[in-house]
């Protein structure tokens, strides 16, 4: 076993770093550890020929830093949000939709179709029920529920 670890120990370490970085990356919504994968791959390949750990570590850190800088430069040139446009679910605030299932906060029922998507919905006030077919405006987002308020409009013809 000792001979195996002496021969393959550094390669196993870098393989473990690759797997750990991929697991961390897969479990998060943001890019946090993907930069380490190419660096660890390079260090793993280097470990085949070079047994000096600090050289492997230096290559790992240099390539990981280089990947981070490349990604930052790309991110600055290609931002996710342009012209104040929101790309997440909060972009739906202020949008209008049509009630598909009557909204009743007391009963815990209601759904609204906004664009192509149907959302669970609640009224801004517990005392107000909103009947099916009513046009509503989304006032806020609470978890995955839209908090809506009726507007004085009729839905467009053919809108369901």
Describe this structure in words.
The protein is built from three helices and five strands; from the N terminus they run H-H-H-E-E-E-E-E. It has 160 residues and is of the alpha+beta class. It folds into two domains: 2-77, no CATH class; 89-150, Beta Barrel (OB fold (Dihydrolipoamide Acetyltransferase, E2P)). Strands 1-2-3-5-4 form a five-stranded mixed β-barrel. Strand 2 (109-114) and strand 3 (117-123) form a beta hairpin. The longest helix is centred in the first third of the chain and has 25 residues, at 2-26. It is elongated and about 75 Å long. The mean pLDDT is 84.
Task: Provide tags for this entry.
5-stranded mixed barrel; alpha+beta; 2 domains; 3 helices; single chain; OB fold (Dihydrolipoamide Acetyltransferase, E2P); 160 residues
